[in-house]
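Hello forum,

I keep getting stuck at the same step: I have a sequence, I want structure tokens, and every attempt I make locally crashes halfway through. Rather than fight my setup again tonight, could one of you with a working pipeline run this one for me? It's a single chain of 184 residues.
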Amino acid sequence: MSRIGKLPINVSGGVSINIAPNNLVTVKGPKGELSLQVDPEIKVAEKESQLVVERPSDQKRHRAMHGLYRSLIHNMVTGVTEGYKIELEVIGVGYRASINNGVLELGLGFSHPIYFLPPKGVNIEVDPKRGKNPIIIIEGIDKQMVGQVAAKIRKLRPPEPYKGKGVRYVGEYVRRKAGKTAGR
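Reply #2:
Ran it on my machine without issues. Output:
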């Protein structure tokens, strides 16, 4: 049995779950609403204040989908109750980040500024006062979307190993390399 798939999903108060006959699971909570189309072979049932995901057989495909859909539904329940948050740190001399009319404006050492428009459902803020480097805070209810936006912003200027300049996750360790040595 799948260790993750067999765990029930606890549904707290304030969260309502609707399971349509075509296996469309909709989760509504205080922060918003998310829905997921579950494979027709996987069965999702609500028992008391818990959701249980069951598989029809022990085929490899069913075992894989069992844990996958349980994790996705659990992430949806967590998202509509608590939400997800990722923080990025902009490190480098002259590197800056600011929000103008809902658009993230980044100065990352290029000859031009970079403008990033966040997708619907994702909120981006910049905290310039925390520490010496600006912190970009990405929040939303969809875990996949928040992680994807953070990865796209980080990809604009990934941290380099010589001086450590770039955009990195807060707390991320960047292994540093030694530069060239001068003379003989």
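The radius of gyration is 21 Å. If your local run keeps crashing, start a new thread with the error log.
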